[in-house]
Amino acid sequence: MTVAVHLENVHKSYNSIPVVNDLSFTINAGEMFGLLGPNGAGKSTTIRMLTTLTKPTQGQIEVFGYDVVSQPILAKQCLGVVLQAISVDGDLTVWENMELHGRLHHIGNPGRQRLIEQWLEYVELGTRRNSLVKTLSGGMKRRLQIARALLHQPQILFLDEPTVGLDPQTRRRLWEIIRDLNKQGMTMLLTTHYMDEVEYLCDRIGIMDNGKLISLGTLQELRSTHGEGLVMKQVGERWEYVFFPTLEDANLYLNQQQDKTGMMVRPSNLEDIFVELTGRKLD
Ligand code: ADP
């Protein structure tokens, strides 16, 4: 299996304050990998290091075998990135933004024109090619960012909080695009603080908190590790949660209770596991 991304004991500090703390994980080619964590967990910093925008303080990062510190140009040729802040130029048209990116990547014509056409159609912006970017909606700008990131035909796409601030319908449309690209073979790493996003999209999930990776696996693996069954008990205004290996075990426990008032059983989900691990809820 081809390794797409490999991080080994990666640290990043700003003014001696650790922001990413001993991060190690691997993403295989073709995988859709989600980094989940609250604001400030270090997700964006991790993407910035992976995409050569900032250097790790310590540790090693490879993207498709290229070291991001010693071989940044080769690494950059393999990757596309969609950052959180909208990074397209509002005073240029949709087409001009694509042209600029294509030229910066030395994509020659007629291939450049064909690729711009192809990706604008793919993200359904073909009819808006002559619109100034500042006249586009938030969802359209995000789709343009994706089209632009794909122009130089990268092997991996990094998406930093791709759907933040978008309405539910626009989010769903972006999810479809992301999923479809992955089905076509594109490796992807996305960061998010939305549980439903990782549950819907990702093959494997890494949970980050305070710069550390505190859990890693498929949703099913995380549920098996922490417990697939949950007994909830209302105590005053609060709910107390107890994990059990299976739903059956949780039901057995409930049935053994003489007073079942305020108690219920349900399968565990990612949010339960996140709260259990970090002691807090996401926004
Ligand atoms: P996330 O993407 O999970 O919300 P970030 O990687 O953006 O987290 O930030 C992690 C921490 O690093 C935050 O406390 C943030 O304030 C700090 N940080 C990020 N970038 C810088 C920077 N350029 N200088 C100083 N501190 C930074």
TrEMBL record:
Residues 5-235 form the ABC transporter domain. Belongs to the ABC transporter superfamily. PROSITE patterns: ABC_TRANSPORTER_1, ABC_TRANSPORTER_2. Pfam families: ABC_tran. This is ABC transporter ATP-binding protein. InterPro entries: AAA+_ATPase, ABC_transporter-like_ATP-bd, ABC_transporter-like_CS, ABC_transporter_ATP-binding, P-loop_NTPase. GO terms for molecular function: ATP binding.
